[in-house]
TrEMBL record:
This is Large ribosomal subunit protein bL9c. The keyword RNA-binding applies. Belongs to the bacterial ribosomal protein bL9 family. GO terms for molecular function: rRNA binding; structural constituent of ribosome. One of its GO terms (biological process) is translation. The lineage of its organism: Eukaryota, Viridiplantae, Streptophyta, Embryophyta, Tracheophyta.
Length: 121
């Protein structure tokens, strides 16, 4: 079972499982729920019947939060005008919004640590 889901799925038949809860990322502010970019655990029915049809949230999947070494290299190039070889960049596995630390090997004895703040798109 994927992390972020309820430990007690409801079994409909031998082939279909319905999850009671899921993690979503808000695409826009939702009154009394949260702000754009917030990661929340919500009931599947609330997501399916309200958030999804109104375009207010998206399921939280690794693809939504996919941050790669190339993404970091592109950001460094655009903001600092520096070229970095992506093979020297180590990015941790990112599964949810939050703060992470990536490392860039600048020299055999020097490693830079870069703080990444990951937000939903």
């Amino acid at each position: 079972m994927q992390s972020g889901y309820a430990a007690h799925p409801v079994k409909i038949d031998s082939a279909v499982l319905i999850m009671l809860y899921g993690h979503v990322i808000l695409i826009e502010d939702v009154e009394e729920l949260g702000r754009k970019g917030d990661s929340l655990k919500v009931r599947a029915g609330f997501y399916r019947n309200f958030l999804l049809p109104k375009g207010k949230a998206q399921l939280l999947t690794p693809e939504v939060l996919n941050v790669t070494a190339q993404d970091l290299v592109d950001i460094i190039k655009s903001q600092l005008n520096r070229d970095v070889d992506k093979r020297l960049v180590t990015v941790p596995e990112i599964r949810e919004v939050g703060e992470y630390v990536a490392e860039i090997k600048l020299h055999p004895d020097v490693t830079a640590r870069v703080r990444l703040n990951v937000f939903a798109k």
